Amino acid sequence: MLAGKRIVLGVGGGIAAYKAVEVSRRLVDAGAHVVPVMTAAAEHFIGRTTLSALASEPVRMDLWEGPDPIPHTRLGQTADLICVAPATARIISAFAHGYSHDLLTNILIATRAPVVVCPAMHTEMWEHPAVVDNMTLLRSRGVHVVGPGVGRLAGGDLGAGRLADPEHIVAAVDAVLGSGDLAGLRFVVTAGGTREPIDAVRVIANRSSGQQGHAIASEAARRGADVTLITTASLPADGVAHRIDVETAAQMEGALNEHAPSADVVVMSAAVADFRPVDPANYKLKKDAGPPAIMLEATPDLLAQLGRQRRPGQVLVGFAAETDDLLANARGKLERKQVDMIVANDVAAPGVGFSHPTNAVTIVTAASEREVPLASKADIATAVVDEIARLRSTVRQAEARRVDPIQSDTAP
Ligand code: CTP
Predict the structure, then answer these.
(1) CB of 272 closer than 6 A to ligand 1?
(2) Is there an atom of ligand 1 within 6 Å of 260 CB?
(3) CB under 8 Å to 216, separation ≥6 — which residues?
(4) Ligand 1: distance of its center to the CA of 193 in Å?
(5) Quick check: CB of 268 below 6 Å from ligand 1?
(6) Which domain holds residue 279?
(7) What is the count of structural domains for the chain?
(8) Which residue of the set 106, 134, 206, 329 is catalytic?
(9) Atom of ligand 1 nearest to the CA of 317
(10) Of 39, 288, 353, 358, which has fewest CB within 10 angstroms of its CB?
(11) Residue 348 C-alpha to ligand 1 middle, in angstroms?
């Protein structure tokens, strides 16, 4: 799949730099020509010889070494893709603000090729507002982001900031360059049921397992989409570039506010609580005090909000979990929430919906209804993503007709 592709692999100065060697080896094994570029700080963590030996040519570090007077523009222009792994807070900041002070940051500013950024740093740094803002800026410009994951960090700390696994980085590179029918599209998928706190230990939850949403996220990633998964479920999500674990409707809303505006497709498969306790106790309510009166308030309807705010061309998909009047309720939600597609399931039917490995759905759009009979959630995901791809091409044709009135005149 990567045969003949020229990939600049940028390596920043972080402890995860040692994993870049494995990324390079895997890219070369997949047929790519890997041009390794290290920052000066990276050399504190790995030797040039190691990376050179497992890349396609010797490591470069300096703007001024070698016979080529302008290595940055040549490397940036001839690359099919630039992958930065690990990307430190400093590289992310320099790239976001156009500050080109060394060979790698010069290449990043000089290229028109797609860029895959794989951040790795301590949790405190990853969550710092400066880094959060820089990442938002990069994403809004179309930069692909892989990870970071949650796990053990340097010094024995545990948290978010761990470099994504080399195999996932290579899969993401493959997806960005790949020929999948969704290559280049950004998907945001929500999954699982939100949990709304009553007190420090108790929550109001629902029966959604997150399996269907995770299957949709993985299917879109497999077909080349750049997927951000916002989930409450502790399930794996193969190939997903960016995963955000949340618990409450408010946290899901925050993640959507950050990621949905730049998405081409948003799939709301999460079962978002409709009501939450007004004032959850931050301690454990004791039973000796008798049954508590729990005052509830409505949560915002996230899908309806997205329907009101979406930009032209964005495809919005909702779910409808029903026990009665499946199609009438689904059509009502399609119109009320201003979405393009509702995936409706009769959660009272055997083998369907929450917690089952199988599902059966009716995919409803303004112009069509498609019944998908009982099947695995992976097969249902394929059918849903097929319909999204079809809808997306219809939306693009409509956009093209708006932009090009000649095409509009001649269109059937
Ligand atoms: N949804 C949402 N925010 C909410 C509630 C629901 O974004 N606060 C989304 C769900 O993710 C789903 C769709 O709206 O995509 C429909 O959810 P569903 O629970 O079937 O419908 P509701 O709008 O909650 O209406 P009702 O419970 O009356 O069926």
Answers:
(1) yes
(2) no
(3) 189, 191, 267, 269, 381, 384, 385
(4) 11
(5) yes
(6) 186-401
(7) 2
(8) 206
(9) 15
(10) 288
(11) 17
pTM as predicted: 0.66
The minimum-distance atom of ligand 1 relative to the CA of 300 is: 8
Q: Tell me whether residue 410 is in a domain.
A: no
Indicate the angle between helix axes 71-78 and 103-110, nearest 10 degrees: 50
Q: Integer distance in angstroms from the first to the last C-alpha of the chain?
A: 37
**Single-letter amino acid code for the residue at 202:** R
Same domain, 204 and 255: yes
DSSP 233: S
Query: Residue 320 Cα, ligand 1 centroid: separation in angstroms?
Result: 7
Q: Is 126 in the pocket of ligand 1 (CB under 6 A)?
A: no
- Element of type H or E holding 349: none
Instruction: Answer yes or no: is 1 within a domain.
Output: no
Of 177, 198, 220, which residue sits at a domain end? 177
Q: What is the DSSP letter of 338?
A: T
Our separate counts of H helices and E strands in the chain read: 14, 19
Residue 339 C-alpha to ligand 1 middle, in angstroms?
12
Tens of pLDDT along the chain (412 residues)? 788 899 999 999 999 999 999 999 999 999 999 999 999 999 999 999 999 999 999 999 988 877 676 777 889 989 999 999 999 999 999 999 999 989 999 999 999 999 999 999 999 999 999 999 999 999 888 898 888 987 777 777 778 889 999 988 998 898 888 757 888 899 999 999 999 999 999 999 999 999 999 999 989 987 888 899 999 999 988 778 889 999 999 999 999 999 999 999 999 999 999 999 999 999 999 999 999 999 999 999 999 999 999 988 999 999 999 999 999 999 999 999 999 999 999 988 988 878 788 999 999 999 999 999 999 999 999 999 999 999 988 877 776 666 555 444 333 3
Task: Note if 206 is an active site residue.
Answer: yes
